[in-house]
Amino acid sequence: MVDLIRLPIQTSDGRPLMHKFYRQTHDPQGLIVLFPGGNYGVDGPLLYYLGEMLQASGWDSLALTYGYQTRMEELSVETIPGLVGECIAAVKYVLSERVYPQVAFAGKSIGASVAAHICQVETALETARLVMLNPPLGHAFFDNTFVETTQPAFLVSGTADRFYDAAALETLGASRAFELCVINDADHSMDVVGNLEASMEAVKRVVTGAVAFLQTSLT
To answer: Which of 37, 112, 154, 210 makes an SS bond possible with 135, Cβ 3.0 to 4.6 Å?
Structure first.
């Protein structure tokens, strides 16, 4: 059984901010923190099913919302510091309330950059695990941050993603180790355009691969 808990967290400009925190009624197996993309929410299939699978395995799940999204604004350089601060506050609060045998971050697109940044600056997260879903390869905020992290990582990209960059992947792989999952013909949402069966198979492959990565990392 899980309970939906409201966190006493505010946006960077002082407004109430609702995250979806599902807390197990028994001792948890771990905590998964889900970081949405700029236009890909935590109810998108990649994040939703990853959270659902881990909840079923006994994990707590914290699905974040960004304050700029609640203001109906566009993501910009100016919104990033507040976004990062909101996420750090939520993560710290949850970690202060319960001891977890395993902590994992899963970020979609810009969420992957934010998750990597938090793991870089928060020393208490040095044993966390990272799942990077369609990160913005070739962009400094992701590449420069990710190479500075040391947490075990599972990185996913689709060959039809506008951010897919084989050269950037090779450069990253030369700088730090990570597990890689590349989905042929999948775009930035992990959709294979015009092919529902292939799109569903892509999501299944990514989610099952990420769950296996996180669960085997416990041993």
So the answer is: 112
